[in-house]
Amino acid sequence: MTQGPLEKHTAVLRDRLSLAGARVADIGCGDGGLVRALARAGAEVIGIDPQPHQLDRARAAPAAATERYCAAQGQALPLGDASLDVVVYFNALHHVPVAHQEAALAEAARVLRPGGCLYIQEPLAEGVFFEMVRPIEDETEVRARAFEALKRAADGKTLTEEEQYIYRAPHRQASFEAFRDGMIAVDPARRPLVEAREESLRQSFMAAGEQRDGAFWFEIPSRLNLLKRV
């Protein structure tokens, strides 16, 4: 299993990005949790996701500042050329269909100003949490393909890679029920399989999670790739 420091995702991000006043897009924003964190740090943020049900969840949450949301695909961003300081793919690039990953990265480069940052955080296909979820959806291949795509994108012509950083992120789940419901909320098509495997999932969850402070904690091996627009 990957070794590396135990650090919160948000701490890793804030150590590397100047957010106050920055124009930021969070691509694959899901329920908007990171969008709100970026907005609280002073960024002007747009959250983009192709899934209407995810945007419904994001818009239903109390606003942090002036963040906004938009439905779009990563490979077709409704944003102007060189209009952003930062593009974030947080646990999201591997959710872009493999056939569109390179186009999505090209779009991210297009909307970044020269010197702007492309921040890509991806979970690694290892660890107890990954193995627990794997029977529901095995993402080994799509995560590998996403990594290959970002390495090709950092060709030195449009994007250059500034840093690759491996770490372990703490991940909190309030309960098994919250974990189960969250898996379904991310992708409602998972429901039949989650329900069919619920008992074995529960057993794995209870065995793998560290119970403290009234919750269950896991460590997610993670990789940050920080790219800069030429």
Tell me briefly what this model is:
The protein is of the alpha/beta class and 230 residues long. The protein contains 9 helices and 8 strands. The two termini are 34 Å apart.
Question: Can you describe this structure?
Answer:
The protein is built from 9 helices and 8 strands. By secondary structure, the chain is an alpha/beta fold. It is globular and about 50 Å long. Strands 1, 2, 3, 4, 5, 6, 7 and 8 form an 8-stranded mixed beta sheet that branches. The model has no long low-confidence stretch (mean pLDDT 97). The chain starts with 8 loop residues before the first helix and ends with a strand. Helix 2 links the parallel strand 1 and strand 2. Helix 4 packs across helix 6. The chain is 37% helix and 29% strand. The longest helix is centred in the middle third of the chain and has 14 residues. 34% of the residues are buried.
Which labels suit this protein?
230 residues, alpha/beta, 8-stranded mixed sheet, 9 helices, 8 strands, globular
